Amino acid sequence: MSKxxxxxxxxxxxxxxxxxxxxxxxxxxAAGHAGFTNAPGDSSVTLGFNVxxxxxxxxxxxxxxxxxxxxxxxxxxxxxxxMLNTFSSKALDGTGILGRKVEYVTGDTQTKxxxxxxxxxxxxxxxxxxxxxxGSSSGVAVAVQALCxxxxxIFMAGLTHSNDTTGKDKKANGFRHFFNSYMSGAALAPILAxxxxxDRKAYHLTADYNWGYTTEEAVRTSTEAxxxxxxxxxxxPLAQTDFSSYIAPVLNSGADVLxxxxxGGNMVNSLTNAVQFGLRAAEANGKNFEIVVPLxxxxxxxxxxxxxxxxxxxxxxxxxLPDEGSQTFTRSFGTKYGFPPSQxxxxxxxxxxxxxxxVSRAGSFNPCAVAEALEGFEFDGLGxxxxxxxxxxxxxxxxxxxxxxxxxxxxxxxxxxxxxVTPAAQVTYDASIFGGDLGSCNPGA
Amino acid sequence: xxxxxxxxxxxxxxxSAYALIALGLTLIFGTLGVVNFAHGALFxxxxxxxxxxxxxxxxxxEVVDETRTDFLGNPLKVDVPYLYDIFGETTGAxxxxxxxxxxxxxxxxxxxxxxxxxxxxxxxxxxxRPHADQILVTFGLAIVLQEIIKYYFGANQIPTPAPxxxxxxxxFGAAIGFDPNAIIYPxxxxxxxxxxxxxxxxxxxxxxxxxxxxxxxxGMADRETVQLLGINIDRRFTIMxxxxxxxxxxxxxxxxxxxxxxxxxxxDFLVISFVVVVVGGMGSLPGAVLAGFVxxxxxxxxxxxxxxxxxxxxxxxxxxxxxxxxxxxRPRGLLGRxxxxxx
Amino acid sequence: MLGLDKKDFTxxxxxxxxxxxxxxxxxxxxxxxxxxxxxxxYPDLMQRFVIxxxxxxxxxxxxxxxxxxxxxxxxxxxxxxxxxxxxxxxxSMNVIPAIIFSTLIAGAISFLxxxxxxxxxxxxxxxxxxxxxxMAFVLAASVLxxxxxxxxxxxxxxxxxxxxxEFLGGxxxxxxxxxxxxxLFGIEMxxxxxxxxxxxxxxxxxGYYLSGxxxxxxxxxxxxxxxxxxxxxxxxxKSNQQRMSYTGLNTRPYMxxxxxxxxxxxxxxxxxxxxMDPQVGAExxxxxxxxEVVLMTILGGVGTLIGPVLGAGLIKYFENIFSxxxxxTLEVWFGVFPDWMTDLMVTIVYPFIGKGWHLTLGLMFMAxxxxxxxxxxxxxxxxxxxxxxxxxxxxxxxxxxxxx
Lengths: 445, 343, 404
Fold this sequence. Notes:
- The complex is a heterotrimer.
- Helices cover about 35% and strands about 20% of the residues of chain A.
- Chain A contains 13 helices and 18 strands.
- The two termini of chain C are about 35 Å apart.
């Protein structure tokens, strides 16, 4: 049986112009191609940007898309070149990737694994995309990553924070630049201990799904190691919008810290409710009652408004970082769109650059060659300090930001202030602790 | 004991939200017999009336502040609301702070107009059409309304805090002799509860004690006979639709400080509001209100830590479980009438 | 032929031909042309067309014949998917056990839910089914994580046993260290042949043809059910259940049988989904998914044979094609105009595509129900009647009238 997997339309598109006319059926065979899925033609290469365009994360998705467009512009030599100028690797020169102009297709993940896979499959099967990136939830990332492994293309994860993406569910064709729950916990705990003391009693509210579980576990383990005690951990439905019945008992539970393992709308609502219940102003065990949000994003902070003031959390990146890479990126994004980029935008931009750079260094679009170029790659100048793409689990290790909601924001974007930049060494863990198996890289056809 | 009182309070509050939404839906669905999938969208539109008003109140002009810089390093442009110029900073800020209560007045006429336009323009033609067609058209309408809101306001949640005066909680426990902090309750939720009760009472009184209400009730029971008596029941139904839309909208307005609105909030409430109406019993307004409170209190109790530890996941399913048990033991829900939407 | 009368047989033939030629028909635009964006002839979408077709056909057997509106059919789809996926993980990557097992599991679950829900009728029935499905959804996404993979979903893994021998699709890992793909006795579901004619490119995909074949079988069975005495009985239930009961006939067993058949169709669709794209997420059971099949059926035409398939196709087409058009695509399309006009056209069209595809979908729902009452099929018939003077005693397909 001939093994013909998926299509190679990129090649055909290029060839079609030349061979137009004769209407005789041509049977394509695997041998006629470079031996991997969607090998690009000589003039252009197509990337697939799969972001939430509908549903609650649509604004985050829109920001990711802006970042992708900016990255493509910079790769093709347009604009001010952005972080190409600060990136430690100089393989990219603004002439596209390996001399091919970068084109892209977009799709809607709807923040549903099914829809995200449908969209990614159409990019691979119909548009000939050779790399898929984007997304703003771990469920989607894990689903699309598995698809890319199966189809033989590279997946550069967007915003996904669960340990699973590069842990239990890691795949040889998938790479993550974003940080994860474990790192949040490891970075946050010392700061919390410094600010709130080591004898705190924590009450966790945890969104009842995979990301919630891993985040709760990470924060619990690392805060308990600092001497904190966990009074209770209550799971809240993912679809919950009014958290009053979960928050009302907190103040009387003996706890003096509330940890909200919530993201997106869940976090905005639970934090708003908690503040409304007067928790910020309350006292328990003779101390000020405190609230902690392990994963922050500026868009969430915006949704929660004044309620974030003074609340600690962690984030992957923030536009106010003073290093040259971050400043350059913020400037070129801000000049083009009129507001600073979010952390989701940053990670997507960086992932696109990293992919393009890996292809250039490998000298091939073959996913296995790209994966090899990314594995163990050390780089700098992309906003998070010196970074390592670890070979064992395809996770980036870099500095993690601990942030605090600003008390008196200067403008509508200035919502978070950086409290500390936790060095990469402090959040590095052993690659084997989350189980899972990378498998071997799959070039497809 | 304090935990139980606390959760009953919580349940009453949740229940008043459910009851309020279900009340509007049951006017349309339980009595006019239109399966209105756009009801959640009306709730959402109400909430966005608040957002719109608060944006209108804070309409601003830019003043360049040379001492500070924005994220690109340029001099910062500070927005100064026109209200500050007109009333001075203190009064202006106070008016903006009170945007949510003010938008009650703002939203009533808007929502009534939207309701009437919806009924006249669309729903009117669907009274005699199959329920299937009603579902399709109202669902389509709900999506369209949602997308329009998303286009103008984005998908992110928009914070709409209650006035400063209502921030914080009332220590209910201390007032009745428990430990301090044992039973606390946010002021705004207390306001919400009493607002809901007033609104519900108002709708009931309107239907019960006015001639208009009497005719509408007669029309609900037997539309044809009422028409034979020479009464223009259509016009009254149109007005009822407007009132139902206003009730849904007001529920949304007052809900904004509790859950910051986004364009999707109506869909989130759609399923639960249908469950509440049906569990209450088709065609029964008291049923809808009762079911709202019953389900709200059940949900609150199921979210107690001790109960979740005993039955993991119960907090997620309790409403549906209760709905199934009630419908199996009481064929027409709590207070349903025979023959309404049973075939 | 095949126990069908001439008209039904013709319909079956037409549908078979459409399924067979779909890869050609759905790719009407040459590769690389601006209109190629509208091509739908790639494996994933074609598979979705026929699989959701099966789902909608099954739903229509219940709703179209009996008028009972289930708002929980996604639960059966999801249960079928999970069951199929477990077969792929435990037994073998051969899709046959997955498909059979998923149909059976969905049948068993629909028997349970149907047995309880059918005690009530009308809206009360709808809410009962909705409540069951929502419970299944929230539990699958949270408490049942060990079985369902939770919100992340269930996928094959390298560590799965797959106990059957290699030639039956067993084995945990392929020779090159990857997870094997779902296959039918060695033919992988993702395997395709490509045929290029001039600038046109057609993808003939094994998975699609397997799903297409299953849809034809499902369609055939549905015709037989519609025309059988059993089908008549169900229609009688729809027109007047009370009268049926007065004749001394217990309608419950008929209703239950119908509900279970309908659930098994959903299970089959779920199993095929898992087999074509090995990943199952809990959101497949959410009320929105149940609502989607309701919309598909109504959009196409309740109670018509082919309507639900058309409705399914239309919704999936919008979801997958319109959501992928972006501003850059528009600029290419309208690039031939002068600049100001390009900008104008892009500004006008932009809200309706890409992230605005929901808006287009909503407008289409309203337009169809307002201008084509009774759905696409009845609308199509009305239009056909306008153009042909020939009087037909019966509407083609002889469908029941869409029902209250």
